[in-house]
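Standup notes
- HV: blocked on the assembly model, inputs below
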Amino acid sequence: MANSMKTIEQLIVDKHTTSLHRGFHLWPKLKNGKLPALGDHRWTADLILSTWLQAETATPPSNGREHRVGNSGGGFDVLDFKFLPEDRRLSNDVATDLSLPLNRRPYDRRIEIPIPFYGAGMSFGSISEQVMCARAKAAQAWKTFTCTGEGGYPESLLAYKDHVITQVATGMFGVREETIQHAPIIEFKYAQGAKPGLGGHLLGDKVTSSVATMRESLPWISLFSPFPFHSVYSVEDHKKHVDWIKTINPKALVSVKVSTPTDIDMVAVGSYYAGAHIVHIDGSYGGTGAAPEIAKKTIAMPIEFAIPKVHRYLSQEGVRQEIVVMASGGIRTAYDVAKAIALGADGAILGTTELVALGCTRCSNCERGRGCPFGLTTTDPELSQLVEIDWGAERLSNLYRSFQLQLADLLRRLGLTAIRDLVGRTDLLIYRGHAGVR
Amino acid sequence: MYQRYQLQTSPTPEIVPFPNRTRVKVKKRGLAMHLLKELVHYRRNPEVALSRPCIYGVFSGPVGVFAPRSNSCVGCLRCTIEHPEMVQVDLNPEHRHLGDSYFTPEHVDTTCYEARTGRIPVKGAGYRGPFGGDGWDGMWTDMSEIVRPTRDGIHGREFISTSVDIGQKPPFLTIDEQGIAIAEGVRTFSLPIPVLFDMPPASVLSLKFLQISMTTAQAAETLLILPVKVLNEFRLQGQQVIPLASHGDADALMELRSTPLMIELDGWNEALFREIQTRFPKSTICLRHDCGSGEELLKHYHSGVRVFHMVANYHGLGSDGRFVLDLIREAHKSFVDAGCRDAVTLLGTGGIIAAEHVPKAIICGLDAIALDTPLLAALQAQFVGECADREKSPFTLPGRLAVDWGVQRLKNLLVSWRDQLLEVLGAMGLRDVRRLRGEMGRAMFQKELEREAFSGIEGYGQ
């Protein structure tokens, strides 16, 4: 009866959604069920499937599927933890504190998140409104954050506004007084790890009427965010930007997103002196809706090398205790989060991981034609219905829960009770060489 | 009058079917049963039953799902995720056989895309490859966070120069009594792109191939290096051609009907070098030299050579087995240490097979590169076995090779590579590729970054 009330389009969406959900459930559990063409060096088939599993079960995989490292042969994949012998580990009864204060300055509002990670900026246009809302809903449930990216602030996000970071980037798409006033945190995006120094690029196919309206542009015309901010050529100029935000929304914390050049340490210190509360360093192997392959592979350094550099330099400068360092760009697993923290970050920012939890296979066709065939990185009205907000939010919540369990377990095995105590503890890491951690 | 450098691109599809990365297989009987079930279930809405899980048209052929069109598959895997019992997507073994161990199938894919479209490969999602590695893969280029407006150059609003000067350059000007600079000793010419075409392997030498290379070099305002005997045999001439002369080729050089811009000497031969200097006083002489030690190059500098063409094998290995990246760095440093780097031009060939290798090679010290295997891959040449040896490697060009098609493919490749060079320069905030040469501060090496980041971590360096 219900079926007869639905339109054909809805029935088609229902049919495929049901099949997809069944597939997401089935594939990770199949014995030797690796999809032959799934995965790559960074995101192996095992990592993708184990992320699906965590998004469904809210626990780390118990079927032996690798969920900690990929097979890239470097960075996080060659680092492991130096766990205590079993008899010296903390018992499961011991409470662990994973919370992360996002303002360490002696002034401005206090914001603390109960888990040491939040969601990366993904714009409306690069992802669907449904995915944006699912991410925001999960962020709300976990009292953490997600970020608008540079594509405007859909009205549907207002319900979650206390957990949404507004991004201000060079194209200023969708940046308005009210979207700055809504947000507890404003993120300036100076650069993005996947396309450092190249600005943003939304291909014409994805600039639908609604995207164009949101960005105050024309439909079906490619949109570029230029690089750099043409009003910022110095730390003083940058401070002017921060002041501008603080004038419009005095309560907001300010985050500064930068990529990872050789002088990332200087950039981080500059951000501190400009008044930022958070410096967000985005490594070169991070995600994107569209970027030149040459930029992804070649320009700027991976996050694993940038974190210790920034941590050390801020410490030497004597300001490390006053600024929060968030790392992103290649953080895939709970173990990556912990390793980033041990290398010197305070917390991590998740982007691709969240999309994988929602069914992304990393096929890299986000920018092509109608966009993502799974309804994630698309603005196609039909495809975007493949992700239902509540379903998506639950998957993300489950993933967060699994990460939370793993981080708590990691701390106990290291003999620590608070994630803050792990910051910069490279003495708790082991380098496994290019053989990787298997 | 100033003119912006421009090569016209045009979509130029492959002439030989290109194996897709993935292959789609279906279980026909299971599929038929499934379809029947769905037709019954959705009997009032057959459109729903017939709706397919692919948005790229893999199942939209005349017999739909029963004969999937693998060539349309982009590897998203939605079909197999929706229907694991009936559809399988695996890696196509034919695709895995493209190229060789150095010029990998992924390189062939990328080169063909560039030659087909003339565009910069742009994709969604993050980087998929290994973390770093040996050779070029262990090197990253810098970017600048907030400086300068030259990024605009990438979108054509501002100028970023990719011109390079080749030839003999005095390290300083000599001023005469009237205070006028004396140009003695200056013998340079400029190319609008830091890319030349190296001589092709014997296995592909044919009139058609040479016509393609010559015409493209002419259109791109760059140079093509060819053995002088080949030039004479095929009666080729023009400013775009650089004759390569070996011992005993002095007479063959005299048969040329025009004075070449540059003559390349195949290995050091003092007698031939002096003879060419005498017979072709207006031509620049370049020494083609197996990649080896910087000391050797310096020795030839002192003999009067000012343009060097360092040649590694197709896999980027020099005569002593070291990788071309290290050899370029060493050569560059030798000239810097000797205080004569600005007086010489360094060209390089071998192992430079991707657009990203061009800025990397220039950062390491080259002025320009001479392309080899990427030209062949763009023309859909097949690699037969391992193709490392410059003399003996067997490549097979498509039988239906057409000159117009080949020229456009190579033009597209050059445009794509130049645009990618602009991306890298723009990200760094450089307006001129000449400023990139030897700018080691613009490079980051995995070994050094790893040492800086991980030293102190147990197990590192052991």
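- HV (later): unblocked. The CA atoms of residues 26 and 111 of chain A lie 40 Å apart. Chain A touches chain B through 109 residues (CB under 8 Å).
- Next: hand off to the docking folks.
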